[in-house]
Specification:
alpha/beta; five-stranded mixed beta sheet; four-stranded antiparallel beta sheet; 11 helices; 13 strands; globular; binds 4'-deoxy-4'-aminopyridoxal-5'-phosphate
Length: 353
């Protein structure tokens, strides 16, 4: 190894779900929305005068911030937007987790957390979920440098009751607690109602799932004025113009079309509840998902085998070859039609054994 190579930051990057290049597949592997975004979104992009692209976008993405402020009845100083919630979360790690004490997150959770911790040299400790994959609040009542977890958790899809989240935030008033609400719109109870009470609580959301805009890259954080000001200071010390103009306009249009948002979320929830029944009939076991995916294992057939067999049938689900979860599949809820194809395929696989 050359000397200059030794100076290079060594990282093992996050591995996103596969985005196969072939068409005609049923893609239930990255928790995307099976429905298109609001028609108002494409209208907003079409109406944007491309001459405006000569100019830099508003570094504060003010129009989008104001649309979010109005939607949730907040103050401008309580909202931060970024390029997907990954951007917001990464920035939040860099901003708030600056202690020598380890930050805490579950052993089974969003697999980007340890990547950011490694990248930014943040000490961390993973806290095991219990045998039912539940987060035990008391495990977080120890000294630490900060806390982060999703609610509902990913990939387990299980919700933590809001009272328990509040207890964790209350017990940790000397550090920042980040609740990653990527999947909250599918039935969980948001911690947003707590941000006025707890200055150390940051709630992170995304347009990628319930607003069907994973391809646009919009995420946001909601929290106290102090937390948001600190996040902005770090962002503006790194890259001012993160969010491009089309994203700002498209994001505003999506927020304004609340009827459409509610309609597609409801459709996904109905399909998910139906999927629980169908998967149970096929011999799958799983906890009560409050997300747009189900994390399930089969009574008899190994998950890896089902994963490979489904792939042969052009149906992609997510399989993690990781301790504790290597016999589980994470199945994103698709359209009712896509799910019917999945059930038939699973039936064949289960019958073959
Ligand atoms: N948090 C969780 C728990 C996720 O599953 C995802 C999706 N991979 C994200 C955050 C990031 O989503 P995005 O960057 O598309 O907003």
């Amino acid at each position: 190894m050359n000397l200059w190579e030794k100076n290079i930051r060594q990282v093992i990057p996050y591995t996103p779900g596969e985005q196969p290049k072939i068409s005609n597949i049923i893609k239930l592997n990255t928790n995307e929305c099976p429905y298109p975004p609001s028609p108002k979104v494409s209208e907003a992009i079409r109406q944007m005068d491309s001459d405006r692209l000569r100019l830099y976008p508003d570094p504060n993405a003010g129009l989008l911030v104001e649309a979010i402020v109005k939607y949730y009845n907040l103050r401008t100083e309580q909202v931060f937007v970024g390029v997907g919630s990954d951007d917001v979360l990464g920035m939040a790690f860099l901003t708030y987790f600056n202690s020598k004490k380890p930050i805490l997150f579950p052993d089974i959770t969003y697999s980007f957390y340890d990547v950011w911790a490694e990248l930014f040299h943040i000490p961390y400790r993973t806290v095991p979920l219990d045998c039912d994959f539940k987060i035990i609040k008391e495990d977080y009542y120890t000294e630490n440098g900060g806390i982060v977890f999703p609610n509902p958790n990913a990939p387990t899809a299980l919700e933590m009751p809001l009272e328990e989240i509040e207890a964790i935030v209350k017990h940790n008033s000397d550090v920042v607690v980040i609740i990653d609400e990527a999947y909250i719109d599918f039935g969980g109870k948001s911690a947003l109602s707590l941000i006025e009470t707890y200055e150390n609580l940051l709630v992170v959301r995304t347009f990628s799932k319930s607003r069907a805009m994973a391809g646009m890259r919009i995420g946001y954080a909601l929290g106290s004025e102090k937390l948001i000001a600190a996040l902005k200071a770090v962002k503006f010390s790194y890259n001012s113009y993160t969010m491009d103009m089309p994203s700002i306009y498209a994001g505003v249009a999506a927020i304004k079309d609340d009827a459409y948002f509610k309609e597609i979320v409801e459709k996904i929830v109905v399909t998910r509840e139906h999927a629980k029944q169908k998967l149970r009939e096929l011999g799958f076991l799983f906890g009560d998902s409050k997300a747009n995916f189900i994390f399930a294992r089969h009574r008899e057939i190994p998950a890896e085998k089902i994963f490979e067999e489904l792939k042969k049938k052009n149906i992609y689900v997510r399989y993690f070859k990781k301790p504790r979860i290597d016999n589980y599949l994470r199945i994103t809820i698709g359209t009712e039609e896509e799910m019917n194809v999945l059930y038939s395929a699973l039936k064949e696989i289960v019958q073959k054994g």
